[in-house]
Amino acid sequence: MTVAVVVDSAAALPTELVVRHHIEVVPMTIVVDGVPRPDTDVDLEALVRDHDLRELSTSGPSPGEFARVVESALAGADEVVVLTVSARMSTTYESAVIGARAVDPSRVRVVDTATAAGGEGLVALAAARSAAAGATADEVEAAARTVMERVRLVATLDRLDHLVRSGRVPGLAGAAAGMLHVNPLFEFRHGAARPLRPAMGPTAAEHRIVGQCLSGRPRVPASRLHASVLHALAPGRAGSLLGALREAVDDLEVFVAPFGPVMTVHVGPGLVGLAWWWEERS
Q1: Would you tell me how many other CB atoms lie within 10 Å of the CB of residue 253?
Q2: Mind listing the pLDDT tens digit for each residue in 159-195?
Q3: What φ, ψ does residue 281 adopt, rounded to 5°?
Q4: Which CATH architecture best describes the domain 3-149?
Q5: What is the pTM of this model?
C-alpha cells in the first residue's frame, strides 16, 4: 500500500524538499490588482515593492483545487493524507475536507495541523518520511500527529501591526511593543498566536528564540532537533539565527523556509523565527 502526502503552500516548504519527499502542494490564493493568483506564482519582492500589503486580500485553496490535487495523487497512490494550516486561521481545512469528499472519502483523510509555516512544514516532512518507509495511512497520520504535539513556533517582528490588524495577536500587545521600542515576540501554538515577553532589540530576540528551543532539549543523550528557520524577506537575520542554532546543536536537521506572499501579507515583511521539535533517539 502506498500513501501520498498533500499540504497547502502555507507550509513554506522549499521546492527542493517538496521534490525530494514527493509532497504535493496546493497553493494559497492572493488577489493582486483584482486578479486571484496562486501565491506560488507571485514574486514576493515585487509584490512588496509595488503594493501596500494592507490592501491585498488572500484566501485558502478552493475545494475544487484540493480535489484536483488529491485526484492526481490517487493516480499513483492507494491513499492520501492531506495536511492543512490551522483551521483557526484559515478556511483551508474546510476546503480540503469538502474536496476530499468529492473525490473518494474512503481513501483520503484530512488533518488540521493546528500550526502554520515551518511548523506545518515539519509535520508534512514527518508524514512524508513515514509514507516513503511504506507506512499505512493510519501510521502516516500518527507520525504527523506526533510532531503536531511536539512542534513549537516562536518568531519576532520589528512591529506586530500586521498580526494585530488580522486579529491574530491582541491589539494591546502590539501597541505596547510599539511604544516601548522593543522587538515583540510571539508563539504560534494550538492554532493561534499569543504574545511573549518582548526583547530589547533584534539580536536579543533571536537569542531568546534559540533559548526557547534549547530549553526543551530532552535529557536523553541521543536527541535530534528538527527545525525550520522562518523569514519574510529577512534572509540576513534568518542566516544569523541559523548560525546560532548550528553552534548550539550537534544533531540537527534544519532548513530555511522563506514565507510566500500569502503568509507575508498577514505577518508583514521582516519576520524571523524558528519552528522545531525534538526527537528522542535510541
Answers
A1: 13
A2: 655 555 555 455 544 444 454 567 888 898 887 778 8
A3: -115, 140
A4: 3-Layer(aba) Sandwich (3.40)
A5: 0.90
Give the other-Cβ count within 10 Å of 24's Cβ. 18
Range(s) for CATH 3.30.1180.10 in the chain?
152-280
Residues 233, 209: Cα–Cα separation, whole Å: 18
DSSP type of residue 55: G
User: What would the grid cell of residue 204 be?
Assistant: 536579543
Residues 30 and 37 sit within 8 Å (Cβ to Cβ): yes
List, as one string, the DSSP characters of 148-177: HHH-EEEEE-S--HHHHHHTSS-HHHHHHH
Residue range 152-280 forms a domain whose CATH class is: alpha beta
The tally of CA atoms less than 13 A away on the side-chain side of residue 231 is 16
Please tell me the total number of residues recorded for the chain in this structure. Answer: 282
